[in-house]
Amino acid sequence: MNLIGRKIIALVDHDFEDLELWYPILRLQEEGATVDLVGPEAKTKYIGKYGVPATTDLSFGEVDAHMYDAILVPGGWAPDKLRRYPEVIDLVQKMDQLNKPIGQICHAGWVLISAKILDGKTVTSTPGIKDDMENAGATWVDVPVVVDKNLVSSRRPPDLPDYMRAFIDLMI
């Protein structure tokens, strides 16, 4: 229960990778954190790639980076949708400017690319977006998890235990 009193945003839209959303949420809740699901619309059900639903607590426009301790971006196909919302890009940029932990796994790197916060960072992701990450100015490595200052990145579901250990350690 190392994260009691901490508030974390978990971004969501349709076609999120089910494990990459729910595993981190459950681990953070086990540590005592409050996790708000935030999407395009509040109190709306979004469906993951494999059919697992997630109902949002708040909409993008209802959250303020100053009120949260960290943000998580799941993978799947949702990141390609999430990066099209100016509110998401602004939120990720503000979290980065405030040096708050940003977690991204798999295709979630697309959101960070669009937020233009990867230049000079070392990251990992699904190998499918390696070129995108490098073209955004990042150094890409093929390892389970990378921590570069406030950014925690990971490749795919089998890396979730390493990803969440690193993310939680960064928050403690």
UniProtKB/TrEMBL annotation:
Transferase recorded as keyword: yes
One GO molecular-function entry: transferase activity
Pfam family membership, one: DJ-1_PfpI
Record carries keyword Transmembrane: no
Gene3D superfamilies in alphabetical order: 3.40.50.880
Keywords: Glutamine amidotransferase, Transferase
Domain DJ-1/PfpI residues, every copy: 6-169
Similarity annotation: Belongs to the peptidase C56 family.
The protein, known as: Type 1 glutamine amidotransferase
Species name: Alkalicella caledoniensis
